[in-house]
Amino acid sequence: MCDEKDLARWARSGWNRREFTVAGAMAALAACSPSGAETDESKVLDQPLVSSDATITTPDGTMDAFFVHPGEGDHPAIILWPDVAGLRPVFQMMAQRLAKEGYAVLAVNPYYRNAKAPIFEEFAEWLTPEGRAKTEPMREALAPEAIMRDAKAIVPWLDAQDGVDTTAGIGTMGFCMGGPFTVFTAAAVPARVRGGASFHGGGLVTDDPMSPHRLLEKTQASYLFAIAQNDDKRDPVVKTRLEEFAHAAGLAAEIEVYPADHGWTVADSPSYDKVQAERAWKRMLALYHEAL
């Protein structure tokens, strides 16, 4: 799962919600919304979006989620796994931005076994001792097998929705804690999940038999592994092992260490880096354009 050393350091630094509110995060996302600088893979749609709260029945209960898609036509589906602070406004806005690119996006609440989203309104709340303590028992329920059960329920739900192109592959994206969930999802439903993007994912290479790098061979997806520079400094073998196992499985995988710190792609994170977040976003769009 996500390594919390840097997150704890942010908490001690005195950063607080007055200095970086969710309103500020939304402004940051709005500022970096698609413009004339998109890559050729970008296909920003000039049409209204349709969004709704969603519920998905899983073997473990009822998952709540946020679903958004273009108002016209059918589109490839994307499953969005949030970071350790869970589904909250910043990820809903991210889902909306991706929907504008021509995708049907389901941003899920991974903590649904314990509580409905939002667990927190902004990342700053998780950084407090009380916030971290609140999610600790929730995270214990998120074993690889649990996420794979979720994925096996999510995919048929998506395939039954208006706005989803069932002839296209499904993509998955995950942040921090959600990074390895992209591989778990692809391994759970390999015939449908064809693209996975992990942003500063934690726990991608471990000694566990269910480590994501070991599960790559059970998938049929192409990948983007965007690694934070401080995560790489702490564990430089991760990028090498991911490359080795992806190559052995015959999978396309773009693996890059970005010059930004853990959390850099999420706008309400204290390490948010707009320039590098935009670069990672464009690489994700290129992945989905090719793979789905």
Description of the molecule:
By secondary structure, this protein is of the alpha/beta class. It has one domain: 3-Layer(aba) Sandwich (Rossmann fold). 38% of the residues lie in helices and 19% in strands. It has an 8-stranded mixed sheet with strand order 1-2-4-3-5-6-7-8, with helices on both faces. The longest helix is centred in the C-terminal third of the chain and has 18 residues. The two termini are 27 Å apart. The relative contact order is 0.15.
How do the strands and helices of this protein lay out in sequence?
Blueprint: H1 5-12, H2 22-31, E1 49-58, E2 61-70, E3 77-81, H3 89-100, E4 104-108, H4 123-126, H5 129-140, H6 144-159, E5 170-175, H7 179-188, E6 193-199, H8 212-215, E7 222-228, H9 229-234, H10 237-248, E8 253-258, H11 274-291
Parallel strand pairs: 3-4, 3-5, 5-6, 6-7, 7-8
Antiparallel strand pairs: 1-2, 2-4
